[in-house]
Amino acid sequence: MSTSEYGGRVRLPTARLEGRETLSSHALRVLASNAHHYADQKCNHLVNWTAARTSLMAAGQGYMQPFQLSTSFARVASYGPIPLTLKPDRTAYPVRLELAAASSSGGTNVDFAAMLVSSVALGSDFVRDSAIIANHGVIFAGTTSATPAWLAASSGSTFFAPSQSIVEAALGARNTLTDTSGSPATVDTCEVFLVVYARGANLAVTPRLYGVHLSEYVGT
Amino acid sequence: MPIATRVPSVRRVVSIDDTVQVGKAVASAQWSSLGELTNYLRGRGVMIVPSQVPIVGADSSGGLSVPGLSTTVTIGYRVRPSGRAIARVWAFEVIGAIAAGGRGTITVNSQSVAVSAGNITADPSRVFVLVETATKTSSLTNLDVTMQATAGALYLTSVTCWELPRAQLTKDATDLGVDLGTVDPRRPILDRDYESVAGVCEALAGADGRRGTLVAWCGRLVETTSGSFVDVFELPARIVPPKVGYSDTTRTVSWSVYAACDVGTTGEARVVDGLGGASTALSITSTTGAWLDGSKSFRCEDISQSNGLISGTTFETIQLQIRRTAGAGKVYVTRFTARDDAW
In CA terms, which of B37, B49, B339, B340 is 20 to 30 Å from B253? Predict the structure, then answer.
């Protein structure tokens, strides 16, 4: 949902904004609307990966799989640190989280889950369902298909606002310069990691991860 | 003392509902908020490489331990920086060989860092590199990363890169930093670069809502001899290009592919959207590998929907396709990016 008055960029004649031209209150409304619209749109695709086709590779495979097979959720991959965009009230822009996956053995179920953490050390190797739910993560609907497909959520939502506790724990400062040859300075960032987990119905089946998408949206 | 041209760490909102009306003078508070929001828009930077999974490796024995791997592997991305950033954050996740793990280096922009990773079941090693750029550019830029194994073997399982936000902007023609002290209450209205109302207008005219890179893929060599277009990815990548104009339903996305072909062979590459619409095909003729650049219109974000998706349910997608057009050899691709870079 847009926070701008006009819901899109409104072009103004350059002459309206030059010196000695009267700048009306309406022009200010248009400028502010444009700035709000830019800020609405200026958010990121934080994670966006889809596996190349294994059948087109001379060697290896395009998908990811857990390094340790398990009937509990085992970590497949972690991504980050990735920078969250913050609203004026210091809450994060909501995100869309999508996973694509398949089972190595058609007919045997595999499950996937994912959650944001403020420190990758918090994304432990194995987690229980309750830990994912407690951390505002998403558990995806299991699949028995050997054909990759994007998964629906079975617990949590694939569109959600990162929890405020994670946002506050992820706030920090990085050292930088004021310009390319400037003085030392610091800049505030809010950096998180996305951790993806998978489990199989038994140890003979391998969960295969084929895609991950995490993007921000200004939301409501 | 506050920095005059600081970049806020969170976006600002200009309150206009009842306070800015025809016939009433605009208070400096509105200009002050707009100045802060303008500095935010110009100073926050863009995503350079959304996290992706290369799954490429390097073997210190040059393939004797892990067949097919060289002692070094190079990955690359074709991106368009924001033009104001002075530093990029690179993050890598690395795992070692199945039994022995590995050691080596990762080099980005002439900066090398040592890497040590345990065996494949150990916790992955994470490598963080902050690269300060010598110049600010918004030109299309090729970024390469090289990983060298000096013991055992290493695999890259995750790569991320983003521009570090600016702490403050400079009052020059590149940054167009707004001196926020000049829009404080009771300050005179000036027609002067980087200051007052004129400075805000000038900087906002050059601001944008760019999303930077929408998808970046670099991985193992993909090859085909097919004379018909074949999909490179198992599933199309999901993208949400921004909406720019009020009535826009589509957005032009730039894309680049790094492709090669065998001697005596030629090929083509193109992208296809979620409705099956294909871009103009680009010719693949280089036998050593070259970037090819194209663009295509895609459906954009629907800001009337609570999740921004098309009709609230549908992602726009992008699929890369390649084919052989002549000869008896193979056509290869290893790198692909799609960007929102033309505001």
Answer: B37
- Other beta carbons within 10 Å of A167: 19
Alpha helices in chain B (DSSP H): 28-43, 196-205
Higher pLDDT, residue A155 or A122: A155
φ and ψ at residue A20, rounded to 5 degrees: 70, 5
pLDDT of residue B1: 42
What are the residue ranges spanned by the domains of chain B? 1-44+168-208, 47-163, 212-340
CA distance A205 to chain B (A): 17
Q: Nearest-CA neighbor of B244 among A138, A68, A37?
A: A37
How many structural domains compose chain A? Answer: 2
Note whether B53 contacts A28, CB cutoff 8 Å: no
**At A204, which CATH number?**
2.60.120
Task: Kindly report the CATH class assigned to B212-340.
Answer: mainly beta
Residues of B in contact with A20 (CB under 8 A): 191
Q: What is the pTM of this model?
A: 0.95
How is domain B47-163 classified at the CATH fold level? Jelly Rolls (2.60.120)
d(CA B191, nearest CA chain A) in Å = 6
pLDDT tens-digit profile of A24-45?
788 888 999 999 999 999 999 9
Tell me the ipTM for this assembly: 0.95
Query: Would you call B234 and A54 a contact, using CB atoms and an 8 Å cutoff?
Result: yes
